[in-house]
Each structure stands twice: as structure tokens, then as C-alpha cells.
């Protein structure tokens, strides 16, 4: 530490200034079901936050509200200091800054792998075709599927398709990437090839919000683990602290079930 003392308020303000994603008192209902209950969460620039918890705890809904794939009933969500607009061109612009990798790839079946990664660049970022193609190829190389550029998604394994989906998200130069259970639809032997790409992104300083059941990834790549149950954030801590000494009974119960079966 340097000899400069920082008051707690000033330190808090400095940290707040570097928060890239901020959810304040976010509530969401599906009919009578209260799926997000007064959720408050701040994600700093360059931070990897892994969201875990039992099924039905609101993890995926939380992830999907951050780029407004799900609307919220109350509360606010800001990305890099701008509140998420409800619709229209502003929303499309802001959403381009928030990459999303889904459980089920969501690639365009009738377009080649290269075209899938070019499309957003050309449509949203207005990149010319040659530049978009060059960048798409570089990103496919980066995630280890460069040789598959001319194939169609159906010709690829699940693990390869998911890596293409990650390249597609990266092509937009997002400020943050959301991963909604990115490995849960994959065969076990393909999970690691996707997690390795995600580990690499984490190491490079990409801001990431990852909803996952992969506890090994949470332990090794997360800066912070957020544990959700029944629509609430029950606990958040650094991975070492959370896995070795969870504070809440709910988290202890959850970990005992998944780590010792």
C-alpha cells in the first residue's frame, strides 16, 4: 500500500465509478411468482462474477434482465452509467455492449460459421464486409475453431458451436459478456473446451457474468461468487471464502448436496 490514505467514502465513490453493471432494487414477477426480489448487485469493470444456486432461484432471469431480454417490474439496471432503456434504438445500441452466450447456442443454421460471427458487426456496428470477415476469422482462430469457418452450425459439435457463439459475442467488442448456463447442453467431454475459452477471457480481463453449475470454473476463474436462492441474493464472497466457509445455512445446504454426492 502507498502512504496515501483514502477515506472510506472516497474509496467507495472510486469503486462505484468503476462499476460497469449496477442492479438496484430489481424486482421481477412471472404471474404470481416473485422471481427476483429486491436484487442489488454491482459488477466492476474486469470482474468475473459467477452466479450459482438451486434451480428456480432466479439466476437465469437475473442474467437476462441485464440486457433486457426480460423486463423488470421495478428497480433500475445501469450499464456503464447509462440506465437500460425500455425499447427502441437506444436499447439496441446499449445491448450491443452486452454480449450474451446462451445455453442453446442460437446460431443461424442457414449461415456459415464465419457469416454468423460477421452478421452483428455488419448490422449493428455497420462494419464493412471485408473488415467484418477478417475480424470474424481472427476470433474463430482465438476460440479454436478457425478451421471450421466455412461449415454450417449443424456440421459442428456442441462444444464447437458454443465456441462460435462466444466468438460472435466477442465480435461486438462488448463491455460485458453474460453467460447463461453455457455448458449445460453439452456432452461432458465438450464442457472443458468451452470452459477453457472462458478461463482465457477471464484471464484477459473481460467483464463476465456467468450463471453455471460448473463449480470448478467458479473456484478458479471467479473474482466473486454470488449465491442465489428463492429470488434473492443470499450470499456473495470470494470463491475461496464461499466454498470453504459459506456463511448462510442455505449455501451450506446447497454445497453439501453438490460437492459431496
Keywords:
10 strands, 39% helix, single chain, disordered N terminus
Tell me the number of helical segments per DSSP (H or I, 4 or more residues long).
10
List low-confidence stretches: 1-15
Q: Characterize the overall form.
A: globular
Number of strand elements: 10
Assign the structural class, choosing from mainly alpha, mainly beta, alpha/beta, alpha+beta, or little secondary structure: alpha/beta
Distance between the termini: 43 Å
Give the percentage of residues in beta strands: 15-25%
Strand order of the largest sheet: 6-7-8-3-9-10
Mean pLDDT: 91
Largest sheet: 6 strands, mixed
| Strand/helix succession | HEEEHEEHEHHHEHEHEEHH
Helix content: 25-40%
Domain ABC transporter: 21-255
Catalytic activity: a polar amino acid(out) + ATP + H2O = a polar amino acid(in) + ADP + phosphate + H(+)
Organism: Streptomyces globosus
Keywords: Amino-acid transport, ATP-binding, Cell membrane, Membrane, Nucleotide-binding, Transport
Amino acid at each position: 500500500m502507498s502512504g496515501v490514505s483514502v477515506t472510506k467514502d472516497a474509496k467507495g465513490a472510486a469503486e462505484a465509478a468503476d462499476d460497469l453493471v449496477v442492479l438496484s432494487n430489481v424486482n421481477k414477477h412471472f404471474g404470481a411468482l416473485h422471481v427476483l426480489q429486491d436484487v442489488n448487485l454491482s459488477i466492476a469493470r474486469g470482474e468475473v462474477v459467477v452466479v450459482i444456486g438451486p434451480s428456480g432461484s432466479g439466476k437465469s432471469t437475473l442474467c437476462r434482465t441485464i440486457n433486457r431480454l426480460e423486463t423488470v417490474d421495478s428497480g433500475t439496471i445501469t450499464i456503464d452509467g447509462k440506465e437500460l432503456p425500455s425499447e427502441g434504438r437506444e436499447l439496441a445500441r446499449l445491448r450491443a455492449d452486452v454480449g450474451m452466450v446462451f445455453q442453446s447456442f442460437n446460431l443461424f443454421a442457414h449461415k456459415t460459421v464465419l457469416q454468423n460471427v460477421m452478421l452483428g458487426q455488419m448490422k449493428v456496428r455497420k462494419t464493412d464486409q471485408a473488415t467484418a470477415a477478417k475480424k470474424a476469422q481472427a476470433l474463430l482462430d482465438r476460440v479454436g475453431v478457425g478451421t471450421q469457418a466455412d461449415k454450417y452450425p449443424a456440421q459442428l459439435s456442441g462444444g464447437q458451436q458454443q465456441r462460435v457463439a462466444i466468438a460472435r459475442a466477442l465480435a461486438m467488442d462488448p463491455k460485458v459478456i453474460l453467460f447463461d448456463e453455457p455448458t449445460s447442453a453439452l456432452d461432458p467431454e465438450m464442457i472443458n473446451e468451452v470452459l477453457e475459452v472462458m478461463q482465457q477471457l477471464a484471464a484477459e480481463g473481460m467483464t463476465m457474468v456467468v450463471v453455471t453449475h460448473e463449480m470448478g470454473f467458479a473456484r478458479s476463474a471467479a473474482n466473486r461468487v454470488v449465491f442465489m436462492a428463492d429470488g434473492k441474493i443470499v450470499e456473495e464472497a470470494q470463491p475461496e471464502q464461499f466454498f470453504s466457509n459459506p456463511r448462510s445455512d442455505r449455501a451450506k445446504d446447497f454445497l453439501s448436496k453438490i460437492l459431496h454426492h
